[in-house]
Structure formats: structure tokens, C-alpha cells
Amino acid sequence: MAHHGVKDTYEVEGEIQVVQGAELGTPGAGFRFGRIFAQLPPFRPTDASLAALGARMTAALRPEDPPLPPDDARLPAGYTYFGQFIDHDITRDGTAGRVEEVKPLKADQVLQIRSPRLDLDSLYGDFGGRSEAFFEPADVVMFRIGLTEPVPEAAADKNDPVGNALPNDLPRVLFGQDAGKPLIGDDRNDENLIVAQLHLAFLKFHNKVAQTLRAQGAISPAALFKQTRELVTRHYQWLVLFDFIRRITDPHTFAAVLGLEVADLPDDPAAPLALPATLALNPLFFRVTGYETPPMPLEFSVAAYRLGHSLVRPGYSWNRVFPGAPFKQFFDFTNTSGGLGKPDNITAAPANGFVALPSVWIADWRRLFDFTGVPGFPAVPRPQIPLGVAKKMDTRLMPALGNLPGGGGNLATRNLLRGARLGLPAGQDVAEAMAAAGGLAGGAVLTPAQVMKAIVAQDALALGDNAVLREHEFDVKTPLWYYILREAELAGGEHLGPVGSRIIVETLVGLIRASVTSIFNAGVAPADLSDPQTAGTLKVFSPEADSPLRVGGVPITSLAHLLAFVDDVNPLGDAAVAAAAGGG
User: Fold this and answer.
1) CA-based, 20 to 30 A from 255: which of 387, 463, 496, 499?
2) What GO cellular-component annotations does this UniProt entry give (predicted)?
3) To the nearest whole number, what is the mean pLDDT of the chain?
4) Span 121-126, average pLDDT
């Protein structure tokens, strides 16, 4: 179907919709939210019932209650925040006011101000262009890197790195009213220190890639930047899909959408993956049909992808200075959330806070990602340097998320209200629609008994959960976000069930497919992407065959490999610290 001067079509549940009047290449044109299952009725329970359910999701044990069963997942904790980094790359709701506090909205009334492609515009800025303020004036290919603020009183001796300004912070405004403001493509990446340090890692990854390509021969700055960005973007997309999403989704669903056999996937989702040179993608519900700007599905952004809230821990082992930092401090030591200001845990902190990240707060990535098998990394001594892991996926959120700072309220309730305001269907309705099309990958629609919690002595919270579920008949019709988390809980908590997995895998495959630079059909001109002869079987970017980047001679196939390639895994080292540094 040809359309002159407009975006290509997208197909959702068999209905072709055309975005009229937006010329190809217009920055920001056509960014919008949409629905995958637009034919299903919205599920809008009362606010009071959703508030009751949200309160149960963040309920805390009483002192007399027995502890809950262990909830450690295998997933390294760093992936929780890589997931947030991805979210900031593809979605940002610009609707005035908090959506959960306003009247019900249709999908097209919610303002999407982020490019819904995996193109790293949160890194590069300007919807696929580049923002010059982010780059070095003397070398326009290289991102600026910020210096940390020394904390000499925390240094064990004159050689301790914490007493120095180190190139381990986001670039920031250093003077004036905006001092401390990050010079990055999305200020949300400075709301949480773990995300901020991941953003920094990708800035450094870009710079290291540019250095690698520059060393291969003379090339103009413009051409070098283009090649660098394309290679960085393809590695990023590959890691999103084959390192992160493979770990958190049902293997049967993951294989089905990508046109693989589940036998092709290693039993361990962290194990290396051998992919064929081409894939025959097989999405059933979110089918992107060419080089286009697809809608951001609300079923993804408001329900399935909010799984990350269930993974959050009350604290993390961060580095040798703070081997046990509480969750709140990861917000205090950012500019956007904490103003980098007035810390109370470092001796002689400036009265008005810091302008840059204090050197004692630089990440030790060995505590958040598993470097086993990465060349050049000896076995990390555990438990002296513990590997933090995510919480299992379930319907239980960390109790602190029930009372967000700054009057933010209960995060679970906000998520549930948001889903209702935006007219998301009930989880059972989505599951039934998937089942009718053969999309549950061997799964089944949850029964009311499965939505209810099993009453066991080790779970003192289950009785209260079930009372709310039964009172509001949420066991019969369940908010989609809760349904997806309950599916994951029933599957063991290590990965999502079939509904959540299908939404996430199909959405991200579609967004990658629609990206101007994509791991699918790399090197094929955009005009050819809708050609039936090329659309069925797609060439897939290979980190081994299509990239010169290596870590100790092996390709970059995990975030641990990427961090090792950047060569900035633990800048503070493992030396003892002075008592003046305090604890976390």
C-alpha cells in the first residue's frame, strides 16, 4: 500500500491504520501511544478498589510475622536498571499532570515525547539528531565526560582514588543557577544513581568505539560519528534483545516471536547464544510493517514493562566505600532527584551539596553484573564482593515503594490507576485474545484460583491479599499489570509468563524493526524494508561477524562484556577505606 509523503502503515490486530500528514524524516513527527488490543473493552474498576490492591502489593510484615520465603532471583541486579535505561530511551509521557489523577484518556490523548525506536535518543538527543552541547568542542565525535568531586577526608592514603577528581560522572553544568544539571539527552537518567552510571558507561562506550574505528584509518569527523553511532546502536539493540529480554521472558514465547525453536536456546538464559544468520520474525499482534514510526503500545508501557518495579531491592552493595547502600541514597546522589545535595554520610560535605558526583559514589560494576567468563577478569571473591541480584518477579513490591518521597504516594496504586485511566483491558481478556490466536506458547488463561494466593505458613501476607482480590472480584477480572506479575509469580519468578512475555518481546522486536539503524536487515536500504521478498527473512547483526569490537578477543555479547570493553569496571579498586568515609 503506497502513501506519498506520509508515514508508512502499521498493523495492529489486522487493522491497517495510516498516520496522515507527517512527512518521512520530520524530527518528532508521529510519536504517539497506541493499543495492541484496541478491540478489547477497557477495564476500569473503582479507584478505591485499586488503592486497596496497591496497598496490598506494598504491604509490610508485622514484627510478629515469620519472614517471607527467599525471593532472590538469578538475574543480576544491574539489569533492573538497564531496563529503566531502555524505558527512558523509548517512552516519555508528556501529558500535563499525572495521568492517574485525571479523567480517563484515550491512547491518542497521551503525549509521547520520546522516539519509540531503540535509537538511543536518550543518549544522543534530538530524536535521532545530535545535541552539540553533549560533545567535546575540540573533538566533536566524542561525548563529554564529567569529573567527580574529590572526597579527600574519605581517602585511606594519598594514593586512594577517592581523594581525586575522576572521569566518572555525567557531564554537568558547573556554574550558575543550573550548576549540577546533567548535559545528557534525558534528565530522567540522572534520577537514580545506578541508571546515571549506566548512562555514563554508554557515553564511554561510544567514545571507545570511536577510538577503535578511528584507529582503523583516516576518516572525516562526520563519517566517523555516523559509523560510531550506528555500531553503538546495533550493539545496544542486540544486548536489549538477546542479553536482557532473553533473561526476563518465557523462552517458548521468546523463541516463537523470533522464529526460533526453543531447543535453540540454552537452558541458562545467561549462556552464550548461537543465532542463525537470518531470522523469520513471527509476531502475532504487534506487527510493524516497514520503516515507520510505530505507536508505543500502552499494554507495554503501562503494564508489562512495569515488571521492573517488582525487581527493586531495599539496597545494594555499591562499592568498597558503600558495601551496603540503602535505596534512598541512590536518589540522593543524583542532581535530578537529590540535587547532589547536603549528604549526611560523608564528613565535611559542602553546606550546599556537591556540583558533581562525589568520588566515593562511583560504581563497582562487579557487584551488579556477573563477569564470569569475561576475558581478563579473575574470579571475583564472593561473598567479600557480593553479586547483587534482583528480587523475583511477583505481585509484591518493596514496602518503601508504598510511600514515595516528595508526596509521590503509593507506586503500585499509581500504576494500577494509570492502567484504568488509559483503558487497558483486563488481564484475562488479553490472555483469551492471545489464546484464540495461538499466542500463549503453551500457557493458559489464569483461573480465579490461580490469581488467588496459596495460603502457606511462610506467607503471612497472603490472607490479606486474597481478601482484597475476592472482595473486588479481581480474581475474575484482574488489572493487566497485576495479572502479568501474577503469571510470573506462578512461573517461579525468574521470568515473565506468556502474556507479559508476548507483549514485551513483540513490542521490542517491532521497535527495533522500525529503527532507522537496526540489527534486522542491517545494510538494507529503508525503501527495501517493506519489500515482501526481504521482509520475511531478515539478516541479523552479529557481534562476532559484523563488528570489530572485542574484549580479550571475544565479541560483546552481554552488558558485562560491554563494561569490560569500556575498561572502567571498578575505578576505586579494592583497597581498604578510611573510617571517615562512613558506611552505607
Assistant:
1) 387
2) extracellular region
3) 85
4) 85
Helix (H, G, I), strand (E, B) or coil at 408: coil
Looking at the DSSP assignment, which residues form a beta bridge with residue 297?
34
DSSP for 436-490, please give it: HTT-STT--PPPHHHHSPP--TT-TTHHHHHHHHHHTTTTTS-BHHHHHHHHHHH
User: Over 50: is that where the pLDDT of 115 sits?
Assistant: yes
Alpha-carbon dihedral angle through residues 91, 95, 100, 106, given to the nearest 10 degrees = -90
- Range 270-274, long-range pairs (CB < 8 A, 24+ positions): 270/74, 270/370, 270/558, 272/557, 273/242, 273/246, 273/557
Enumerate the β-bridge partners of residue 391: 72
User: What's the rounded mean pLDDT across residues 437-444?
Assistant: 92
Q: What is the pLDDT of residue 370?
A: 97
From 25, 584, 29, 21, select the one nearest 321 (Cα to Cα).
584
Residue 93 confidence (pLDDT): 57
Give the residue among 17, 37, 8 at the shortest CA–CA distance from 424: 37
pLDDT, tens digit, 9 for 90 and up, residues 289-336: 655 678 889 999 999 999 999 999 999 999 999 999 999 899 888 887
DSSP state, residue 121: H
Contact present, 289 and 11 (Cβ < 8 Å): yes
Cell 480517563, located at residue? 104
Domain ranges of the chain: 10-581
* Number of alpha helices (DSSP H) and beta strands (DSSP E) in the chain: 18, 13
User: In terms of Cα–Cα distance, which of 391, 385, 390, 355 is closest to 569?
Assistant: 385
Write out pLDDT tens, residues 35-56.
Answer: 999 999 999 999 999 999 999 9
Contact 393, 489 (CB under 8 A): yes
Is the pLDDT at 208 greater than 60? The verdict is yes
Question: Measured between alpha carbons, how far is residue 166 from residues 149, 156, 191, 355 in Å?
Answer: 8, 16, 21, 14
Lowest mean pLDDT among 19-33, 355-369, 404-418, 551-565: 19-33
Q: Is 439:285 a contact under the CB 8 Å cutoff? A: yes
d(CA 24, CA 291): 9
41 contact partners, CB below 8 Å, separation of at least 6: 425, 429
Q: Which amino acid is it at 302?
A: V
User: What φ, ψ does residue 439 adopt, rounded to 5°?
Assistant: -105, 10
- For 141, residues 6+ apart whose C-beta sits below 8 A from its C-beta are 135, 210, 214, 221, 224, 225, 228
pLDDT level of residue 14 (50, 70, 90 thresholds):
very low
Q: How many residues does the chain have?
A: 584
CA–CA separation, 79 vs 243, rounded Å?
A: 10
Beta bridge partners of 135: 143
Q: Are 37 and 430 in contact (CB under 8 A)?
A: yes
Q: What is the pLDDT of residue 566?
A: 97
Alpha helices in 186-302 (DSSP H): 193-214, 221-239, 246-248, 251-258, 298
Is it true that domain 10-581 has CATH number 3.90.1580? no
Dump the DSSP string for 338-374.
Answer: HTT---SSSTT--TT--SS-BGGG---GGGTS--TT-
Average pLDDT on 71-83 reads 97
Q: How many CA atoms lie within 13 A of 202 on its CB side?
A: 29
